[in-house]
Please model this.
Amino acid sequence: MNLQDLESGDKARIIKVGGRGELRQHFLDMGVIPGVVVTKIKLAPMGDPMEIEIHGYELTLRLEDAAKIELEPISEETNSESRMNENQHTAHNSEKKNHPLHPGLGEEGKFHEKKSETPLPDDTILKFALVGNQNSGKTTLFNQLTGSNQHVGNFPGVTVDQKSGKIRENKNTLVTDLPGIYSMSPYSSEELISRDFVLNEKPHGIINIVDATNIERNLYLTMQLLELDIPLVIALNMMDEVIGNGGSVDVNKMEHILGVPVIPISASKNQGVDELVKHALHVAHYQEKPLRQDFCDKNEKGGAVHRALHAVIHLIQDHADRSNIPVRFAASKLLEDDKRIMHKLDLDTNEKETLEHIALQMEKERKLDRSAAIADMRFSFIQKVRSSCVKKPLVSKERLRSQKLDRILTGKFTALPVFAAVMALVFFLTFNVIGAFLQQLLETGITKLTSAVDFWLTSAGTNEVLHGLIVNGIFSGVGSVLSFLPVIVTLFFFLSILEDSGYIARVAFFMDTLLRKIGLSGRSIVPLLIGFGCTVPAIMSTRILPSERDRKMTILLTPFMSCTAKLPIYAFFVNAFFPRNGALIMTGLYFLGIATGILVALLYRKTLFKGEPVPFVMELPNYRLPCARNVAQLLWEKAKDFLERAFTVIFMATIVIWFLQSFDLRLNLVEDSSMSILAKIAGLIAPIFRPIGLGDWRICTSLISGVMAKESVVSTFGILFSEGISLALSKATAASLLVFSLLYTPCIASIASVKRELGLKWAAGLVIWQCAVAWIFSFAVWLLGNL
Ligand code: GDP
Ligand code: MG
Model:
């Protein structure tokens, strides 16, 4: 029997995990190993992928991967055995009840018994790496530690770039928030970032954040971090949930077993964070290494893994020292068949052969292949830690709530309609209710201010040119853009709530089948949805994708998702030309963007990106109420971003354009702007735009200025068409222009991020390609409009 055949709701035990290479390693690292009991929860609404529960957390995987996992029924005997274990462990825990919750700085800030005190010099800048699983609360903790604004999300992998900051009130410190990882075996490119950071930057200390509601999986990473021989403290996060559900963790005991300080905290409630900082500073300052790095047990399951690991350690000791890789870590990675570490160690042929022999012997004795044997060793150690220190709550409120919500949100018949309704509601609230209301307010304010300034300048008898620059240039240019701030912030607000709550992970789960049809995996939905906010973070978030092929393809598709900066354009033209069908046309444009994206993806799939999308293994976190502080910080960041842009790029563009359209080549003020410098320049490219109805030099100019920032299209129109656009242009022109703005090249900031991710060639190619696509579609619209 294999996992694919398991009925929903049934349990079975894994006996074999098939597949090869990094993907298989990823399965093992996620806890899918022989001997473990797995429960199938359900299939996604479109029949693929499936959701399973393992070690108390939920994972998704595709049916074809599930088919590689062999199962056996759970016998009565093993059942009662595990029940007995459960009983034992509850008894065990009640005995321990009197333990104080944790030691604090009871040992006067000293955790280890030191033989000698050799602190680092006082002026050393202590560098910390914040490492942990995805959704363990790293970013929330980082915000608490540094007080800075970071993007926090509840989708696996929202942190895609490393961010650093100083710990509050501690001058000589620097913490870096790293992307979430499940293991030190690199799987996606962001996992590689985290691993390389820890291995190469050699931080003075590691703050390992562990989700206490999910200890089994989180400690898997901890064990590999301990092998690195770098001072480490464990921040046991989400303790509020554990305690709220009646669970507890014997922190003292855990410290003794793991040999590092363990500090229970709640990052979102800012509990225990000060204490964490004290411990972290202490271990880093005194360079207190983890006391325990050896987790294999000589007596366990014949001790084969233990013997193999120690043999490898002896074998490679000198190579590890030379290449500056902690030897314990190197040994376990070699046994896991990690090619990158193998390469770095530079073993000679004899040593490689010996290594292979050791590994083969281990496989033979253990009757498991090497990767599975190592993963199994780690999980059995974790079992021991868990059964002696952790009392799991019988029911977790958050878990039950998530399951209830999922019955509807990922239910067979409800998932897609609910998703459509949620998106519709988000856009409706953004454009018609909240955002629109705030926008009205702001617009009224700006108009009042403009006329006040106009009046004041006139009565003061200001020079005509200056007057024109201020009122017609700056105020109408920047002002027209500024009024879109509320809509943009509101849309980001909703997107971040969806992300933070854990819903987007579910969307990835049930959209996987559809996205596969266009050659992508469910994970790509995240960058694509973020793309409706802004293309730049969307492109950055593609680093969560584990394959280069998927990543490239997703990057090239995100610009087709209409970003918020294009909204001002739509609103401006819709108000002027199609006021009665406004909502319909706006929605239509969004859908046209999506449809074009799909067509282009199908084309890519047949040409540039042949092959299959990567497998889809992902954790489904519990739904969590987004933390108000995080959301507020995000909004503030976005608003700041937008304002900065409005007052730098757009402000400059406004002035330049105003200048170019007010003067001729001999720098005389022109009567009519068609004699201006701008008209001359734009006239050169006008022929390209003439066939699609956009041959007017003023339109060409606006489109060019839109490359700087999309909002500039509107501000430029504001300046160049001072008489109002509804008289100057026809409806067909407006339609063609809308479509062209939707599809043509993304703004300079997005082009720069494409270049950073994929290189200059791809970025240039994307610009030309999108302009071509836009031209073709606009041409069609123009023809239709003139029928
Ligand atoms: P990251 O992926 O590791 O950066 O995790 P985030 O910082 O994005 O947090 C994931 C989710 O957990 C967010 O919805 C947070 O609001 C929530 N969260 C973080 N810390 C805590 C905590 O201590 N208690 C509870 N109940 N939720 C938390
Ligand atoms: Mg994060």
